[in-house]
């Protein structure tokens, strides 16, 4: 075969469902950048016209009709370039998830996804119909006839075809067949949610496939917090014959992040400039990168003016505080001060000029003071340690910090109820009630600050607390966003140590020396979370075995016993406590503020784990544990 050289590009886009203006602007910017780089073929992410996360709106025909009109606009921007753009397509009562190929202002065809994502966070078969392999048909739209299906396209003699995201994750992926028909280039528009270490799997799907099928491969993912919960890392990969040619920085703050490379097609192509080595995955780094970008997008897409936080100085609220500070630092590192403040869409021209005039370090601190407001709300049960931790951290990152006590409000409610019931409330008889009223009276004041600031209230619940409902509903669950509800407590504690050491958040030194405590009981009782519950490591292990590995309670017990986690009696108590609290507290998980999906699975009923609100609570299954003799 004669040698052909094609300039190939993939662009990650930060899209938002139904935000036509934003989505089209990003697409236009990507096309303009590609044209200026003499790109022959540009791949844009899955469903990027409408946004991937439109959910049940995909079932409304008007959405696809509107998207088609937008496609006709986009087509006019494609002068002397081939652009692949994701769009839902309604045909005879079915909706298909497609990528449309536009070449020099003409629509060449639509490739429809063949394997729909239906695991974990994905529910695609609810909306889309899978397309059968090897089938191509014609359809009429607005007076024109188009081709749709499993099309093989050609660019300057090079045959190419598609795998749309999930298509590449299946053993009988389309590339298997396409390469037998002479295809030398596979394009993959994706909406592949972020999860820890997942980039490694994608690398293999792309680079190993390019080796196995002896082809070139271009992969382009969505970028940012698109629709609230899922985060996309914006990965762009260009590979050929098992060699990685381009890969971008993941989780950046740009709207458009493009990579391009000239790729040679011949019987024995020369592959210049390959990337031999990718840095090893560091999950702490990944969590911070994903969490902070997710916060920034959530803030600007809700037009909020920063965050408000009830800062106890404990691990969970400290992580939320550091996440906002790191959001500002990373955002400025990625975009520069001017673009960051412009993108935040909340500052006047005069304020923006003020920030721009500051040295970068000062701008970061000044912005943190505007974007993060914290309050310590102590009671007689609070310790100096937690106050010092909260104040020390807030001061060190430059956050606005208030301090007040809530004893008066607690006392006011307690005496009201005591006089209504004609009896005193005591720790002996009313333990949980007296704990919960403290957590609850922290909510109105912090909500007031939130309203005044037009900000978002951060709820600090973590994943381990979520599993067992160790949190007061409408108390410390109050908030508009639960940024760390996907992260377990053991991970949080080591993450904070890492952030102190590696990211130099010195203000974390206080929390890193504290034992987690709710500080809701009188201090002489020395309440700790782990005394109330069980060691967090064990709680997290039970949760994973129960809901990721999907084992029955007795098998969970047996496995942990075999690992020597605790004595049989203690372990039985912990397993029983876990399942009983898990079953009783589904309603709480249903009511948490929206949280981010960070791990390969999580407990969020809206995105991963369905469980009944009313259930038998594993009574019989836990009863079986008593019959196990060892
Ligand atoms: N299925 C269901 N659907 C709807 N509502 C249901 C329900 N089951 C119970 N309920 C309701 O739930 C109420 C109990 O829930 P709730 O009032 O939240 O209280 P509850 O879950 O009983 O207790 C809260 C727990 O969280 C711990 N906590 C609280 C605050 C902070 C921290 C910390 O770590 O800092 C820890 C505290 O030590 C205690 O163990 C019941 O009175 C009942 O009304
Ligand atoms: N003294 C306090 N001042 C302000 N907020 C508080 C105070 N005590 C508790 N809270 C709020 O209630 C939340 C729940 O408390 P919890 O103890 O679970 O979390 P934490 O204090 O951040 O972490 P840890 O459990 O590691 O101590 C806190 O994150 C915080 O938002
Ligand atoms: N949009 C998709 O098809 C995503 C599914 C794919 N398994 C992923 O998580 O990346």
Automatic annotation (TrEMBL):
Reaction catalyzed: deamido-NAD(+) + L-glutamine + ATP + H2O = L-glutamate + AMP + diphosphate + NAD(+) + H(+)
Keywords: ATP-binding, Ligase, NAD, Nucleotide-binding
CDD domains: GAT_Gln-NAD-synth (cd07570), NAD_synthase (cd00553)
Protein residues bound to L-glutamine: 192, 198
InterPro entries linked: C-N_Hydrolase, C-N_Hydrolase_sf, Gln-dep_NAD_synthase, NAD/GMP_synthase, NAD_synthase, Rossmann-like_a/b/a_fold
SUPFAM superfamilies per record: Adenine nucleotide alpha hydrolases-like, Carbon-nitrogen hydrolase
Enzyme Commission numbers on file: 6.3.5.1
Binding residues annotated for ATP, in chain numbering: 460
Pathway: Cofactor biosynthesis; NAD(+) biosynthesis; NAD(+) from deamido-NAD(+) (L-Gln route): step 1/1
Highest taxon above the source species: Bacteria
Binding, deamido-NAD(+): 436, 465, 588
Function: Catalyzes the ATP-dependent amidation of deamido-NAD to form NAD. Uses L-glutamine as a nitrogen source.
Family: In the C-terminal section; belongs to the NAD synthetase family. Belongs to the NAD synthetase family.
Protein known as: Glutamine-dependent NAD(+) synthetase
Protein's organism: Pontibacter silvestris
Gene name of the encoded protein: nadE
């Amino acid at each position: 075969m004669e040698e052909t050289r094609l300039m190939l590009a993939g662009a990650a886009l930060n899209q938002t469902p139904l935000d036509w203006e934003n989505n089209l602007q990003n697409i236009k910017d990507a096309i303009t950048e590609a044209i200026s780089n003499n790109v022959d073929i540009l791949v844009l992410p899955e469903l990027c016209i409408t946004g991937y996360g439109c959910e049940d709106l995909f079932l409304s025909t008007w959405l696809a009709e509107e998207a088609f009109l937008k496609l006709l606009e986009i087509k006019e921007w494609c002068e002397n370039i081939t652009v692949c753009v994701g769009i839902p397509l309604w045909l005879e009562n079915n909706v298909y998830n497609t990528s449309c190929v536009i070449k020099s202002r003409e629509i060449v065809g639509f490739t429809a996804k063949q394997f729909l994502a239906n695991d974990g966070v994905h529910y695609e078969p609810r909306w889309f119909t899978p397309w059968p392999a090897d089938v191509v048909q014609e359809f009429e739209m607005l007076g024109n006839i188009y081709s749709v299906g499993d099309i093989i396209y050609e660019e300057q003699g090079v045959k190419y075809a598609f795998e749309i995201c999930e298509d590449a994750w299946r053993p009988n992926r389309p590339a298997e067949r396409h390469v037998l028909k002479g295809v030398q280039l596979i394009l993959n528009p994706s909406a592949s949610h972020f999860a820890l270490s997942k980039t490694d799997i994608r690398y293999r799907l792309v680079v190993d496939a390019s080796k196995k099928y002896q082809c070139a491969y271009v992969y382009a993912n969505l970028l940012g917090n698109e629709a609230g919960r899922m985060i996309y890392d914006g990965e762009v990969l260009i590979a050929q014959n098992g060699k990685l040619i381009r890969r971008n920085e993941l989780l950046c703050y740009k709207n458009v992040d493009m990579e391009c490379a000239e790729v040679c097609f011949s019987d024995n192509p020369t592959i210049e400039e390959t990337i031999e080595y990718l840095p090893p995955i560091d999950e702490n780094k990944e969590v911070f990168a994903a969490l902070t970008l997710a916060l920034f997008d959530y803030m600007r897409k809700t037009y909020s003016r920063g965050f408000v936080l009830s800062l106890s100085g404990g691990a969970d609220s400290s992580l939320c505080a550091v996440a906002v500070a790191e959001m500002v630092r990373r955002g400025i590192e990625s975009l520069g001060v001017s673009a960051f403040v412009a993108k935040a869409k909340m500052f006047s021209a005069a304020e923006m000029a003020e920030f721009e005039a500051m040295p970068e370090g000062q701008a970061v601190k000044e912005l943190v003071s505007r974007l993060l407001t914290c309050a310590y709300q102590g009671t007689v049960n609070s310790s100096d340690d937690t106050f010092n931790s909260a104040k020390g951290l807030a001061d060190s990152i430059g956050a606005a910090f208030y301090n007040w006590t809530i004893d008066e409000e607690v006392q006011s409610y307690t005496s009201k109820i005591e006089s209504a019931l004609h009896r005193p409330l005591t720790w002996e008889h009313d333990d949980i009630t007296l704990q919960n009223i403290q957590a609850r009276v922290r909510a109105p004041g912090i909500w007031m600050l939130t309203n005044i600031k037009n900000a978002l209230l951060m709820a600090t619940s973590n994943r381990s607390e979520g599993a067992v409902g160790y949190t007061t509903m409408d108390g410390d669950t109050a908030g508009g966003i639960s940024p760390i509800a996907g992260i377990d407590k053991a991970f949080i504690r080591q993450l904070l140590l890492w952030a102190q050491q590696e990211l130099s958040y010195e203000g974390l030194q206080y929390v890193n020396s504290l034992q987690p405590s709710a500080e809701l009981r009188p201090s002489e009782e020395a309440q700790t979370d782990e005394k109330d519950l069980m060691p967090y490591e064990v709680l997290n292990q039970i949760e994973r075995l129960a809901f990721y590995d999907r084992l029955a309670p007795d098998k969970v017990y047996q496995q942990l016993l075999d690992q020597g986690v605790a004595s049989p009696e203690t372990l039985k108590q912990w397993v029983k406590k876990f399942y009983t609290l898990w079953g009783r507290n589904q309603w709480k998980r249903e009511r948490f503020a929206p949280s981010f999906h960070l791990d390969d699975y999580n407990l969020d009923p809206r995105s991963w784990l369905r469980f009944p609100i009313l259930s038998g609570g594993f009574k019989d299954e836990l009863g079986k544990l008593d019959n196990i003799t060892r």
